[in-house]
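Here is one chain, start to finish.
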Amino acid sequence: MSPASLRRRALRHPSFVAGALLSTLVALAALLSLFWSPHAPADIDIANRFAPPGAQHWLGTDSLGRDVASQLLVGAQASLVVGVFAVALGLGVGVALGCLASARRGWTEELIMRAVDFGFAFPALLTAILLAALHGPGLVGSIVAIGLFNIPVFARITRGAANAIWARDYVLAARAAGKGRWRITRDHVLPNIAGVLIVQATIQFAIAILAEAALSYLGLGTQPPQPSWGRMLHEAQMQIFQAPQLALYPGLAIATAVLGLNLLGDGLRDLLDPRLARQR
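Its structure:
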């Protein structure tokens, strides 16, 4: 499929367009907060506690007088940083393990897959608690915990997709022509499973944002004074009856980011799968 044809189909795909717009909105908010925010997010103004939305504070202030809009903008940074690096860690290590298992087969595949099964026994929350006990809570601990959880996910996806490619006629012809396993993996396997990995990466990105919010909510993720959507939810629960909007804003931000990535993943799946492309 030509790039022009793919672009036309993408623009006509409602899930892809909606997901791309929502994801771009979140990314632009994080990028904007690197250079500008309405107020310094950590500035405390007790005299203006629970101020309503207005010209000075667009979304009002929290229990310490901090500007909510500024915290939301800067909080997007933590979510995207954790998502990008956690997915990159899982993608890099998981794809390598999956390709190795598929290329070598036999005992190598069995050992890698049993190690992957063992990795599923340690969810991100449990790993984050362990890392917090050893080195203290923080952003790096969240990245490592979520990234380690992503490794077995990508390893299984890669191995399953790669095994299907190894059974194709053109791969058998390449082996008959004398190509080695690693050259076949590079030239034939990886290009043909790239679409599956891209779609899975968007899904894991959304899961990473949810996991980072959960870890921050529990005090294991991003630490003060760096804003975080999860910690904003944790602080808002203390004033849920006095100022319920303080829980609404970070909840909507998390929902927007996750919904955008899920819609983007659904759209990419439809666009990159040739069978679905023919049906549409």
